[in-house]
Design brief:
heterodimer, A: alpha+beta, Tumour Suppressor Smad4, 18 strands, about 15% strand, B: about 290 residues, mainly alpha, two-stranded antiparallel ribbon
């Protein structure tokens, strides 16, 4: 359809030829008929052609008037006058090939000045800034504050699974340590009470076997520091140690125990290098009436002696020239007897069976070097000897010869020899029967007993007093006829410094002799423990710059093995937390199974 | 707005905040908490409290500085304090975090605060740079002055085309009617020109009025006699109009850039308040 659109303003007459089926009318500059009137929408209405008919329809405008009649949709015919907000469109039949002629007469009073037609500043745009501000505000407040606040009242468990409710990580103030990381999705496992710092019960619910620092029956449970687990154990900073290691926590009491209100013999200590008492050793001594008695002795005590009751010269065993062993001369090193335990803290116990018996064999019959007496119990030893010699009395001691002798014919070529000082070897019992009449003054039992007693006494005396036991042990006579000797009990000190944690493992790069002067030790009573100055060759205080920085917990533990468990404090409290954790474990297990 | 808030009273607030920042950094370096520095140490709580109070105060300043000559202090002084003390918050809050960040509401609060401050920095830059740049573009005229000039030219153009062929009149009139400037957010910010013109019954884009100018120049080359003269005057006038419209678009663009930061600064400030409230509350809920 061809149209001629004429603008009827007196001075600036203009006309456009238009060829198309849709004529748009509105404020927008891209409308066919553009009316720069701010009261109009960008697209007010449209004229569409259908065959020869024109139909005017309101688009974003409210209405128009055709010949004074308000309408929203209207067919237009020749002579119609459309009025839109005071602007007039006259429709008339076209000429010269135009289907219609539209005369546009704009109400110039309604036309907006150019400068006001378009928003020319950000403030003139109807931007939803206020709405955005509120949206952002409410969103963050909702996620950040409303959710945990609601969780506070109804329990996070109940709302955690609702869609769009974030997991608890949103409120995490810092990564948890690896050991606690599995609880990261549920703050309430530790933070059981809102606006209250994590309580000891929350920790002890799991850590029930953690022990007190001192005897709570004497000192109560009030710690100046360490009242709360959180005083020393800080979470939410995975890069830090979970346990504080600074000295200040310890020295608040240990700088002056009296002042701190503890009646303790512990001497003050504030820094390993500058202010630490000399070492004390736990020593023991055998009291015949009381048994082993423990005492604490300062390492610096003059004439300090170990009372293990073992005779053992380190210098002989560690001689550079070696020592006679089973395979000839052997050069021993410390590790031949002293082995660290698994974990490297203490040394494994030195035992006769494992470490001494290769050389110190408990043989008693030169002809039978494979026969030994048991170690450790003199009555057992005596019994073994009796059994041995009784057997010998009955069967002879040379089992290889036994069949021949059993045949009753002793080889004439075998010359009976008797070692000087020894009771003559008996014949085997058959010989004795044959020769019964030759010595009839004693019964055969008496003869056997006489023989056994004599041989046992000889061997035992040699073992206890001359060759074997007495080499390592203090032997004394006893009044007991069955076991006429007494061996003084032996106990090697296995934990000299029970209040300190020393790891041999972490010192494995050092020479043993750096701390223990064993090579020059002639007596087992020598105390070979190093004193604090030896440690200070390498270890400094907390802030040392030229020595290994060492603080209290480098050597000492807070939770002491021999104290009561802190978990006893809570006993039945806080089962919920534990149950929750158990549930957590279970659900994790189930997840694993499902996978 | 005058930009002398930067050097208000010899930069008093600059020195105040600088001194405060340095003090905070020195204490941070000196303090030796059991854990790595974080918001939960005594210094962390102190900085956090100061920071939170400052944020509230700065927000109030944002409101206060709009009430010219109201209450004590000058608006310029308030703006100066707002800018410099707001900047110092960057140091205070960062020290408060102990440089520990994560995907959580706490870091969200910190990040929003940084966005607010950085958008504020841009605001300072914009207020220092753009008003004078716009003034230079407009040659010290106001925008209204320029529009008046355009209006005058439009009258002139309409008069000129009445003696010229109808199609030229139709084009020029349509170009005047369909001249655009400003517009939506991006249109203003990018200085887009969506002007159109109807030529031969078809609406075409008339970016920078180029289509019309080209068309007129083309017609000028083919014109003869009086028409050449009239067309030449028309082209000259139209060119002047084109130039003035260019100035207006540039001014709108620069003014949009000058103001744009507020579209971020204010909404994010409120987001920050929410995140800050959530941060503080959640820290104590899960103490």
């Amino acid at each position: 359809m061809r149209l001629l659109i004429r603008y009827m303003q007196s001075r600036d007459k203009a006309q456009h030829e238009f060829d198309g089926n849709v004529i748009t009318i509105g404020r927008g500059t891209d409308q066919t008929i553009q009316i720069a009137d701010m009261s109009l929408p960008l697209l007010h209405s449209k004229i569409t052609s259908s065959g020869r008919d024109l139909i005017l329809t309101v688009s974003d405008g409210k209405s128009f008037a055709v010949n004074g009649q308000t309408a929203k949709k209207q067919s237009l015919i020749d002579g119609d006058v459309v009025e839109i907000s005071g602007h007039k469109l006259k429709i008339s039949a076209g000429e010269n090939g135009f289907d219609y002629l539209i005369d546009v007469e704009l109400d110039s009073e309604q036309i907006t000045e150019l400068k006001s037609r378009f928003p020319a500043g950000l403030k003139q745009i109807k931007a939803p800034r206020r709405q955005l501000t509120w949206a952002l505000f409410l969103l963050l407040l909702g996620i950040g504050l409303v959710i945990p606040a609601v969780g506070l009242y109804v329990g996070m468990d109940k709302i955690r699974d609702i869609p769009l409710v974030p997991d608890d990580g949103v409120w995490l103030t810092g990564e948890l340590h690896q050991t606690h990381a599995f609880m990261e999705d549920d703050c309430t496992l530790c933070h059981t009470e809102a606006f209250t710092q994590t309580k000891d019960e929350d920790c002890l619910a799991c850590h029930q076997s953690v022990n007190h620092h001192f005897d709570t029956e004497i000192f109560g449970t009030d710690y100046e520091i360490g009242n709360d687990c959180a005083d020393c154990h800080k979470e939410h900073s995975a890069t830090d140690s979970i346990t504080r290691t600074d000295q200040a926590g310890c020295t608040s009491c240990h700088s002056d125990m009296d002042k701190a209100g503890f009646d303790s013999e512990l001497r003050p200590a504030t820094d390993f290098l500058d202010d630490h008492p000399s070492f004390m050793l736990s020593m023991h001594e055998w009291e015949a009436s009381e048994g082993w008695q423990n005492t604490r002795v300062a390492l610096s005590t003059d004439g300090i002696q170990e009372n293990s009751n073992l005779i053992f010269p380190h210098d002989v065993h560690m001689s550079e020239e070696g020592i006679d062993g089973m395979q000839g001369v052997e050069i021993l090193s410390c590790s031949d007897c002293h082995e660290p335990e698994k974990g490297g803290m203490q040394m494994k116990a030195v035992t006769m069976e494992q470490h001494c018996s290769d050389c110190h064999q408990l043989t008693f019959d030169l002809d039978r070097p494979d026969r030994v007496v048991p170690h450790g119990s003199p009555p057992d030893l005596m019994r073994t000897l009796r059994e041995y010699y009784a057997y010998q009395f009955l069967n002879g001691d040379n089992e290889a010869e036994a069949p021949k002798q059993a045949g009753g014919i002793a080889s004439p070529s075998v010359r009976e020899a008797r070692r000087p000082g020894r009771v003559a070897r008996p014949k085997v019992i058959s010989d004795m029967i044959v020769n019964a009449n030759a010595d009839s003054s004693a019964t055969m039992t008496e003869q056997a007993n006489a023989y056994i007693d004599a041989r046992v006494a000889q061997a035992a005396s040699s073992l206890f007093e001359k060759q074997t036991c007495t080499i390592c042990h203090e032997i004394s006579k006893s009044g007991d006829s069955a076991v006429p000797w007494e061996v003084k009990p032996v106990k090697l000190n296995e934990d000299w410094m029970p209040l300190a944690e020393f790891s041999h493992g972490s010192h494995e790069n050092m020479q043993c002799s750096g701390c223990h002067d064993a090579v020059n030790s002639t007596e087992s009573s020598d105390v070979l423990m190093p004193d604090i100055t030896s440690c200070r060759d390498c270890h400094g205080g907390e802030d040392s710059t030229n020595l290994l920085q060492s603080n209290c917990v480098t050597c000492h533990e807070f939770h002491l093995e021999d104290q009561r468990p802190m978990g006893a404090l809570i006993e039945t409290a806080n089962r919920d937390s534990i149950q929750k954790l158990l549930d957590l474990d279970r659900s994790t297990d189930e997840m694993v199974k499902e996978e | 707005m005058s930009t002398s808030f930067v050097s208000h009273q010899g930069g008093r607030y600059f020195w105040v905040s600088l001194a405060f920042m340095v003090l905070c950094i020195i204490i941070y370096a000196w303090h030796d908490p059991v854990q790595s520095p974080n918001g939960g140490t005594w210094y962390g709580y102190t900085l956090g409290t100061i920071g939170a109070l400052m944020i509230l105060w700065l927000l109030y300043l944002g409101k206060r500085k709009r009430n010219f000559a109201n209450g004590w202090g000058t608006t310029k002084g308030w703006v100066s304090a707002h800018v410099y003390l707001g900047s110092s918050l960057l140091v205070i809050a960062t020290l408060h975090t102990g440089f520990q960040f994560g995907w959580n509401i706490h870091t969200v609060a910190y990040a929003l605060m940084c966005l607010v401050i950085f958008s504020g920095f841009f605001g300072v830059y914009a207020y220092v740079v753009y008003p004078s740049a716009r003034n230079k573009v407009k040659k010290s005229r106001t925008r209204d002055d320029i529009f008046e000039q355009i209006q005058g030219i439009d009258q002139q153009l309409k008069k000129l085309v009445s003696d010229l062929p109808e199609e030229i009149g139709a084009m020029v009139n349509s170009a005047i009617d369909r001249t655009e400037f400003g517009g939506g957010f991006l249109d203003q910010l990018l200085g887009r020109d969506k002007s159109k013109v109807m030529i031969d019954g078809i609406i075409v884009n008339n970016n920078n009025q180029d289509v019309v100018v080209e068309n007129l120049v083309q017609k000028l080359t083919l014109a003869r006699g009086q028409e050449t003269k009239d067309l030449a005057s028309l082209v000259k006038e139209y060119g002047a109009r084109q130039k003035l419209l260019g100035v207006i678009r540039t001014d709108i663009r620069l003014s949009a850039i000058q103001e744009i930061w507020l579209s971020f600064h204010v909404p994010i400030s409120f987001g920050l308040i929410a995140a800050l409230a959530a941060h503080i509350a959640s820290v104590f809920i899960y103490w």
